[in-house]
Amino acid sequence: MTKKSYIQAITDGLDIALGEDSKTLIFGEDVGKNGGVFRTTQGLQDKYGEDRVFDTPLAESGILGLSIGLGLTGWRPIPEIQFMGFTFEAIDSVAGQMARTRFRFGGQKNLPITIRTPFGGGTHTAEMHADNLENFFTGIPGLRVVTPSNPYDAKGLVISAIENNDPVLFMENLKLYRSMKDDIPDEKYTVPLDKAKVVREGTDLTIVAYSAEVNESLKVADKLAKENVSVEVVDLRSLSPIDTDTIFASVEKTHKVVVVQEAQKMAGVGAHVASEISEHAIMSLDAPIGRVAAPNSVYPFAQAENVWIPGVDEIEAKAREILDY
Amino acid sequence: MANKGKNAVDFAAIKADLGSDFKPVQILDNDGNVVDSELMANFSDDQLVDFMKKIVWERALHEQTMNFSRQGRLGFYAPTYGEEASEMGTVSAFKENDFLLPAYRDLPQLIQHGATVTEGYLWSRGHVKGNQFKARALMPQIIIGAQMVETAGVALGLKKNGEDAVAFSYTGDGGTSQGDTYEGMNFAGAFQAPAVFIIQNNGFAISVPRRKQTAATTLAQKAVASGIPSIQVDGMDVLACYQVAKEAREFAVAGNGPVMIETLTYRFGAHSSAGDDPSRYRTKEEEKPWFDHDPLIRMRKYLTGKGLWDQETEDKYVEECKASFKDAIKEADNVEPEKVSDMLKNTFEVPTPDIAKQITEFEAKESK
Fold first, then answer.
1. Are B199 and B232 in contact (CB under 8 A)?
2. Domain Transketolase-like pyrimidine-binding: where (chain A) (predicted)?
3. Fewest Cβ atoms closer than 10 Å to its Cβ: which of A213, A274, B144, B319?
4. Which strand (E) or helix (H) includes residue B199?
5. How much is the pTM?
6. Which residues contact B334 (CB under 8 A, 6 or more apart)?
7. CA separation (Å) from B156 to B97, B159, B247, B316?
8. Chain A residue numbers touching B146 (CB-CB < 8 A)
9. pLDDT confidence of residue B1
10. Is the minimum CB–CB distance between A241 and chain B shorter than 8 Å?
11. How far does the CA of residue A271 sit from the closest CA of chain B (Å)?
């Protein structure tokens, strides 16, 4: 066990994947000599050489198109898109091409590609750097979308994503990169790609969240525990597919649920979770489904993030409303 | 302040000169006369006849396919009438282990590269079996810039594999306006990957003429900024198309990086079989000079003059080809319809839990 930050855990996972499979390739903007703008790929080019870890020209559709071609010729690409907002440049490469390739071939070819990309608010970046774009990507058949909320899951999930033979979008939370440290095993381990995790057991209310909002939700659970209110927190980890079994089991136990996300409320992950609960577990509920999400405006400029991103206060208020219903 | 000095730049002169260094390669002229005997010396009589047969095959494929289309027996089909030299000349230069990334007007090349006509017809109808060919290729691309970035990736993969092979792709004049075309050429150049980009300039992107597509005087010059050598070729001259593509492949496979070829051809027919009417956007007078360039007539004149071909041989071969296409569509008729459960299985290698449930639901329905 070693104490590692969220970003070090990802680097560790990448290192293990590169070491185990000589067909893995890491590439993208600045990932080579510079080790990535956040240093996620630090030291990997020195260790594995420029043939395995290399810089590309600055063009996102080119990077993901390159990934498809490399995948078709026997390689296991791990492209980085420097910020999730830059994926807009590559929507066709993902949705129109990569995610459809296995389907087009009638299952005869797979594309084992893991797209890594940082996202998430709270670090006051320039525009287009922090947007939560999972609401787009979870609507793409043939693409898995996962995002860890802690260093342990970060390492295990990135290894699972790389080992998986289908395209996976691996979303790395910018704010968590260096703000969170945990003791994690030094050896290889994996975390399943389609299983949510109950990160806090409770009996009075379920909070379903993912990424940084899991940690905000845990703070609310701590706060309410002081009033003898027992909150269960479910970390989705996988945003596509969604592990509804774990959610239903929790809701059937607590009978009350609040679904939390940092992304805008419109058409997205939280809406899908709420709809699944409505369709399959509504008879277990003693109160309406609570939702905490960002407003449906464009993602804010840096100085307004604090009034826009839902945090502990909003989660706590919604939790109390549903508990008191 | 008075302007006493001279101008630093003559932009008008630079603009007038852009693209002026491209001279299309030609071996045979419109009337079937040899214009470059040294290049013609590369071809044996057998090869010449083989090229003629390929052109006749593609023309017959087009005619028969349009018939099937009019009978309602096919789905989307992009006519290739007029582009036979460009398509057959270039594709013939590549080897079986080269990786083809075609666009939607490139079914004939996909078939020449190892897919069957039946698979071509199934692709047109919209059946997954049309994509399960043994050719080393992707299925025809609809988003006609996407295959360009993928070509860079395939080419880099082949290079990393140490293979004696290239990636070769096709797009059209319209496709060169796609951002992905620039990204693909630039990436292939940056990685010195063995790629051959073939731009079939057939004059139209559906209804928009080439002159409205770009201010560039040639499409070939679009490669220059990526550090990629490029060339224009008479796209109605099958021998010139072959020769240029062959040399491009040799250059790329030897580790010299990518190449781009612009073939100057013409879409004699409509954009697609689905109701496009060229008379809405071009006149018979505009079309006339291009019909004078017909690649089939040009080769027929040349080979007939050499005593290597005659009308009877041609008629007989057309009948043979058409009979094989009729067999192919019958074979396509016998393919089982697709099942939703299979589509779900084809989405991920290991079905996700939600998909696994839907597979069970659909298998229950399908077994009734």
1. no
2. 4-179
3. B319
4. strand B195-201
5. 0.97
6. none
7. 15, 5, 20, 44
8. 65, 92-93, 96-97
9. 58
10. yes
11. 16
Note the helical H segments in B210-294: 210-213, 238-251, 284-291
- ipTM (interface pTM): 0.96
Give the pair of three-digit tokens for residue B135.
């050719």
- Mean pLDDT within B189-193: 98
Domains in chain A with CATH codes: 2-184 (3.40.50.970), 197-324 (3.40.50.920)
At A195, list the tokens: 């299983």
**Beta strands per DSSP E along chain A:** 2-5, 24-28, 53-55, 76-80, 114-119, 144-146, 168-173, 181-184, 197-200, 205-209, 231-235, 238-240, 257-264, 290-294
Average pLDDT score over residue span B210-215: 96
The whole-number pLDDT of residue B274 equals 82
Provide the token pair at B100.
Answer: 């083809």
Does the CA dihedral A129-A133-A134-A137 come out positive or negative? negative
Indicate if B281 belongs to the active site: yes
Segment A19-32, tens digit of pLDDT: 999 999 999 999 99
**Residue A88 to residues A85, A126, A136, B342, Cα–Cα distance (Å):** 6, 16, 10, 31
B70 is catalytic: no
Of the candidates A59, A69, A105, which has its C-beta nearest B153's C-beta?
A: A69
**Chain B closest-CA separation from residue A95 CA (Å):** 11
Predicted confidence (pLDDT) per residue in B52-64, tens digit: 999 999 999 999 9
> What pLDDT is recorded for position B273?
86
d(CA A80, CA A90): 12
Nearest-angstrom CA–CA distance, B366 and B368: 5
Q: Is the pLDDT of residue B354 over 80?
A: yes
Q: What is the mean pLDDT of chain B?
A: 97
What sign has the CA pseudo-torsion B279, B281, B282, B283?
positive
Q: Where along chain B do its domains lie?
A: 11-337, 340-367
What is the distance in angstroms between the Cα of B60 and the nearest Cα belonging to chain A? 28
The answer to whether B271 is a known catalytic residue is: yes
Name the one residue in this structure whose structure tokens are 């992707």: B138
Q: Which fold has domain B11-337?
A: Rossmann fold (3.40.50)
pLDDT digits (tens, 9 = 90+) for B139-149: 999 999 999 99
